[in-house]
Amino acid sequence: KDSSQPSEEKVGAFTRIIEAMGFTGPLKYSRWKIKVAALRMYTCCVEKTDYEEFF
């Protein structure tokens, strides 16, 4: 009863998005800064807020 299936690493949604965009090496900014920027961009799009006025 030896299963020869390769164990898959669980990756987060952020990692999948970065890989889907084609980035494979180290990023210029930390993950935290990218997540904060993404949240700001999302908030501005949803609330129709001018990004410059938002910050």
From TrEMBL:
Transmembrane segments: none annotated. It comes from the Eukaryota. One of its GO terms (cellular component) is mitochondrion. One of its GO terms (biological process) is mitochondrial respiratory chain complex III assembly. PANTHER family: UBIQUINOL-CYTOCHROME C REDUCTASE COMPLEX ASSEMBLY FACTOR 1 FAMILY MEMBER, UBIQUINOL-CYTOCHROME-C REDUCTASE COMPLEX ASSEMBLY FACTOR 1. This is UQCC1 factor. It comes from Grallaria varia (variegated antpitta). The gene is Uqcc1.
